[in-house]
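Posting for a labmate who doesn't have an account.
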Amino acid sequence: MSGSLRIASVARPAEVAFSFDGATLRAPVGESLAAALIAAGLRRLGEGPGSPRAAFCMMGTCQQCLVRVDGRLAQACLVPVRAGMAVTPA
């Protein structure tokens, strides 16, 4: 499913590799991590109290997209993709 949500004719920066929960993914450098995960078909980012967590507001207010980026808690919608980042569910 990777790439199916991206418009083919739109120019983007070069793609870089990063990992989510051990799986290697690719996305344009600078794209929001939440958008990259959604484009890769990953909707479930972790477990919340009573239900799974996922990207929701996409602007940093709800904190439903909380993940660990290189061991530090971060909101996926506010983190730009960069080469080599290691992302895990929070």
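Reply:
Got it, the structure tokens are right above this. The mean pLDDT is 92.
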